[in-house]
Amino acid sequence: MTYDLKSSFPTLQRAPITEATIDIQVTLPPDVDLEQLRAFRRGLEQRFPLVEDRIRVDALLQMHKGTAPEMTSQGPTPDGLLMKSESEALVVQARLDGFSLNKLAPYFKWGALRGHAEELWSRYVSVARPVAVKRLAVRYINRIELQPGVDFKESILTVPEIAPGVPQGLPEYFMRLVIPHETGATAIVTEASLPPTIEALPAMLFDIDVFRFTEIPASDFEGIWPILEELRAYKNVIFFNSITPKQMEKYA
User: Fold this and answer.
1) End-to-end CA distance of the chain
2) Neighbours of 217 (CB within 10 A)
3) Would you say residue 190 has pLDDT above 90?
4) What angle in degrees, to the nearest 10, is found between the helix axes of 224-242 and 110-128?
5) How confident is the model over 158-174, as pLDDT tens digits?
6) Cα–Cα distance between 23 and 80 in angstroms, integer?
7) Could you tell me if 152 and 161 are in contact, meaning their C-beta atoms sit under 8 angstroms apart?
8) How many Cβ atoms from other residues are within 10 Å of residue 161's Cβ?
9) Cβ 10 vs Cβ 249: under 8 Å
10) Is the per-residue pLDDT at 146 higher than 90?
11) Would you call 238 exposed, middle or buried from its count of C-beta atoms within 10 A (0-12, 13-18, 19+)?
12) Segment 108-136, tens digit of pLDDT
């Protein structure tokens, strides 16, 4: 079966998701600073007892003909709050450039993740007063277990290909694909080998990061949720078209 954006996607009881993220990048008024942003946590101290400053470092690599590359950096500079709830396996970021919510394993349903995000985003809006949303994203990081000695394509169809006549063993690999969609969304799909462990089967990282640039004004922030739903659907198109039926049986 081939899936598209209008498909009804299966619900997986044992989804291989290790982390799911909703990210909203914004433009803030010039008078909002980190001290004002700290009010985001007020009233959430018990729910998110672990808090630390989020640190940003900007690096720039400049290359000039006839000279060695020159690296310059700015920072580290605090640019937001990072708050953790171990009991809910949630991580929320309130930043000077946006908001994000991460759900760590075990994953629950999309509706629950969106519900938490809507609640905390409303708090962020009231504290940070963003004037526009400039980028929306959903990201799902999966851990796909593989059978030792069995071809990748028994589990997943989007895989690195080695030319015939070249040794086919592939103990380590990294592959990154950028896949645009006609809706304006773009997916960055990353696959990589994961370090083996004694307790677990060999596994690969299957990371699907889907985003869309926007210019949504503060008067229309409700419009972000249909876009995030569409981004999630595109993520599902990539995931469910890539996983083989045999592998899907493990997650049903």
Assistant:
1) 16
2) 12
3) yes
4) 140
5) 888 888 888 877 788 89
6) 14
7) no
8) 8
9) no
10) no
11) buried
12) 899 999 999 999 999 999 999 999 999 99
- Using a 10 angstrom Cβ sphere, with 0-12 exposed, 13-18 middle and 19 or more buried, the burial of residue 192 is middle
Q: Shortest CA distance to 199 belongs to which of 142, 252, 145, 140?
A: 145
pLDDT, averaged across the chain: 91
With CA atoms as reference, report the closest residue to 204 among 124, 250, 146, 141: 146
On the CB side of 227, CA atoms within 13 Å amount to 24
Report the amino acid identity of residue 128: A
Dig out the tokens for 147 from the structure: 């059978």
Q: What is the pLDDT of residue 60?
A: 63
φ, ψ dihedrals at 74, nearest 5°: -125, 135
In a 3-state reduction of DSSP, which class is residue 204?
strand
Q: How far apart are CA 230 and CA 128, in angstroms?
A: 26
**Partners of 156 in beta bridges:** 243
The Cα 151–Cα 80 span in angstroms is 44
Q: What is the pTM of this model?
A: 0.90
Whether the pLDDT of residue 231 is over 80: the answer is: yes
* Phi and psi torsions of 192, nearest 5°: -155, 150
Spatial separation of the C-alpha atoms in residues 100 and 117, rounded to whole Å: 8
CB atoms within 10 A of CB 17: 20
> What is the DSSP secondary structure assignment for residue 152, as one 8-state letter?
G
